[in-house]
Amino acid sequence: RPRVLSGIQPTAESFHLGNYLGAVRQWVDMQETHDAFYFIADLHALTVNPSPSELRRRTRVSAAQLFAAGLDPERSTLFVQSHIREHSELAWILICNTGMGEAARMTQFKDKAAKFGESSAGVGLFTYPILQAADILMYQADQVPVGADQKQHLELTRDLAQRFNSRYGQTFTVPNPYIPKEVEKIGDLQDPLAKMSKSSSSPQGLLEVLEQPGPLRKKVMRAVTDTGSEVVADPENKPGVTNLLRIQSAVTGVPVPELEARYAGLGYGAFKKDVAEAVVDAFAPIRERTEKLLADETELDRLLAVGGQRAAAIARQTMEAVRDHIGFLPKS
Ligand code: ATP
Ligand code: MG
Q1: Which terminus of the chain is more solvent-facing, meaning fewer CB atoms within 10 Å of its CB: N or C?
Q2: Measuring CA to CA, how many Å separate 96 from each of 16, 53, 73, 174?
Q3: How far is it, in rounded angstroms, from Cα 322 to Cα 140?
Q4: Is the pTM of this model over 0.80?
């Protein structure tokens, strides 16, 4: 079985529709066909300096949502990144094998740093793609399901793996991204050309998995649409309508051309109502299961500990090889 690895940051109280369609749903599907490793990226979340209580709560909410969305602790390994100390160690080793120029090319850093102003953005934001490379290479992953925003980071990961292998001898599997075209970038409802994002979308632009049906419906109805009244996919001239069509298609499984035919002559109102219902129907069962899982933190923490043990076994193996190949002395 090929191995799959992916992570999600606990940077908000809830995942959003982009996370769900672009990542989490693929994770659930891939546990049937792959040796599946998934993690909650709490080290990455530090880049935006959450308070300790926020971080603790969001880490548990993230785990509960993943199980609620269908991750099966028997078939998948779900763990918390900070439980595996080797991630930080490997990140440092890879940092020392990365050029300033190559790190500075990462567009996510530029996007995220813009919010803080160039010189007050944290160094962690700058180096986090390299930590991400460490996360992936640690588990010798073959495939990494992510949204389009992570494409550049995956290329960096592949470069770092190849460089390390040629400098120090075969150590890492060179991973491939898995980015399904139709859901690679779910747009912000208020700014459909920008990606829906936990940390940068406005509340009106986000559809959150744990949100109540009322607000979800309201946001879809108020989503930015385009001039005209035809429900057709046209990414250039109608990014808002195209985004909603992609959302409805991904959630219901009905192809976009069939949806276009269904709403011919009906206008935006009827269309948006159905998009809203489709999203509400997809999220409600996940929200309910998440609430139940959160009621028993002891059990949730136990499941994460089991995942952590399985992850630790592989991390230990990889790091023994890495330390030996780069020339660290053995401990005893
Ligand atoms: P943040 O704003 O804090 O970076 P995020 O919304 O980008 O949060 P992440 O935890 O960084 O979420 O990403 C988790 C996964 O979700 C990644 O695989 C990412 O590519 C994917 N993803 C995030 N936003 C979208 C989106 N709008 N469309 C499709 N996939 C997405
Ligand atoms: Mg992100």
Answers
A1: C
A2: 35, 33, 35, 19
A3: 12
A4: yes
